[in-house]
Amino acid sequence: MLIKWETKFETGINRIDEQHKQLVAIMNKLHENIIIQKDGSLVNDLLMDLKIYTIDHFTTEEKMLKKYNYPAEKEHIEEHQKFINKVSENLFDVSSANLAKGYRLVEFLKDWITDHVLMHDMEYVTHFKKHHTFLAEIQTDIL
Ligand SMILES: [Fe+2]
Ligand SMILES: [Fe+2]
Fold first, then answer.
1. 26 alpha carbon to ligand 1 midpoint, in Å?
2. In order of start, what are the domains of the chain with their CATH numbers?
3. CA torsion angle for 19, 139, 136, 75 (degrees, to 10)?
4. What is the pTM of this model?
């Protein structure tokens, strides 16, 4: 397993936590498939899923940050954009025929999600705690 879900990753905002868990699950599957080197097309499907779910998650998060006037919103969006660019670059490039690149990608994904959630996402959690008190009441279904 590439990433083990731990309570330290939990933001306390239900939908965000569900989305983060989903992303971790896709990254673990990707890692597994790169290791067993079974089916290159499955790797591509998983990378596609990763991109779709990531964009969906970032959209949720960015709308939430805007709604609650998060002061570091712009910097946070830039971090998301960097990630999307990186995943897009590698999207059709990693296959069972290119194992070394696959390993580098999953290592990158692991470091990125760990650092991003623990550092950047937790920063907005700290901010919300200061200004909104109840994380359970934070709205994430913003149109
Ligand atoms: Fe984020
Ligand atoms: Fe996030």
1. 17
2. 13-131 (1.20.120.50)
3. 60
4. 0.90
